[in-house]
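Quality-control log, excerpt.
Job 1 of 2 completed; input and output follow.
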Amino acid sequence: MPLASTTAKPARKLPNAAPAAASALRGQAGRALQKGQQTKLAIVEAALGLSTQIGLEGLSIGVLAEVTQMSKSGVFAHFGSREELQISVIREYFHRFEQEVFYPALSVPRGLPRVQALFANWMKRVAVEIQSGCIFISGAVEFDDRPGPVRDALANSVQTWLNAMLRAVVLAKECGDLRPDADEHQVAFEIHGLILALHYEARFLKNPGSIERANQGFENILARYAVPSFTVTKE
């Protein structure tokens, strides 16, 4: 009687599922991350709207949870603290300011034309903020004497913008649009002063004609510091 064969049949090679599983996990993680980012942006959007009404100091995890109809723990998970929430709002506010005021002006030639474009864009934003509020101004009142990360974020954002305006004025002098004896820092200071006065006059005092006076003030600055050959154009 013949002996049974002792040679084992080769085992069936199963497909390697690891790459497919890893890819699926990456996809799930990516979708979860995207959803988390969208949720965080929605919270910041709501916080930004609230901050123009009640100030940065009025923001809290609880208030945002109520407005967004989320749990407090859900809101907290995206920021970790009230302070980080406030800083996120400041960053978003500054990002929008850059997109509306600064970057569009870069397409305008250097010199006083760019300074004019920056001021015109700034005025367009202020016209909206007269109704909605400006967290750079309200935040300065809330945090002027309160050292910490929130004050630092506010001050750095404002200073970054003022440095950009000063740089535009410096370039205007280098281009020959400003008188040789013009003080670039003084010019930038006076422009900033117009915006602060406009907010106070229009938003707080409700004085009519404030926007027109601010525009006239800017023309007066150009008339004092521009070379005689420069023609002031009205936006």
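Job 2 of 2 completed; input and output follow.
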Amino acid sequence: MERALSSDLPTPAPALLRRLPALLGEWLRNARTRRQLAELTSQQLADIGISPSERIREISKPFWR
């Protein structure tokens, strides 16, 4: 069995590395806003036009979506 040399290993695309800070920021924002949405009362949800089922659907999403 051959061992792969470090130069044979795939490297991340430069475009992905440039996008990484923005992507991490988006993930943090998603997590923060979903946490805030989870803390709203039913009256606050009604004020902004979000139903309880819409809230559940949104806060159930993983942070990367």
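Post-run check on job 2. The mean pLDDT is 89.
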